[in-house]
Amino acid sequence: MSSIQASPNTHETAAPSASYYERHLFFCLNERKGGEACCAQHQAQEAFDHCKSLVKAAGLSGPGQVRVNKAGCLDRCAAGPVLVVYPEAVWYSYVDTSDIDEIVESHLKKGQVVTRLLTPPHLGR
Ligand code: FES
Fold first, then answer.
1. Site to substitute for ligand 1 among 69, 74, 94, most atoms within 8 A of C-beta
2. Distance from the CA of 3 to the center of ligand 1, in angstroms?
3. How far away, in angstroms, is 77 Cα from ligand 1 center?
4. Three-class SS of residue 93?
5. Domain 23-117 of CATH type 3.40.30.10
6. Which of 104, 103, 101 is nearest to 118 (CA)?
7. Which residue has the higher pLDDT, 34 or 97?
8. 54-60: long-range pairs with CB below 8 Å, 24+
């Protein structure tokens, strides 16, 4: 008499293969009232819009590629304006849209971190 035994893995789903996005960027766009330091004081919205446009124009946006998202305060205001790129968890402090150009060209297109724009590790809020 034969029997069929259920494998302990019968109800498990397949392991996730890859991240939904190859890279996911978060731009702090936080604005504080009363003149407190915040990324919005440093043209963060303009940089975000610029990055979205570049990524889209380069055909890099979408599943399996790049997603650029708004974020609230990332608690690194002293280094602002900041953005972070996952999955590498690379933090950048940028000055203007030319820095965003460099991040897109180097990091997003070639996988090379722009070391001159790295957020100093000790800077938080
Ligand atoms: S306001 Fe941008 S990190 Fe806090």
1. 74
2. 62
3. 4
4. strand
5. yes
6. 103
7. 97
8. 54/100, 54/101, 54/104, 55/104, 55/108, 58/104, 58/108, 58/109, 60/104, 60/108, 60/109
Residue ranges of domains in the chain: 23-117
Which residue, judged by its Cα, is nearest atom 1 of ligand 1? 38
Amino acid at 9: N
pLDDT above 90: residue 103: yes
Q: How far is 28 from 70, CA to CA, in rounded Å? A: 6
Rounded to two decimals, what is the model's pTM? 0.85
Q: Is the CB of 42 under 6 A from ligand 1?
A: no
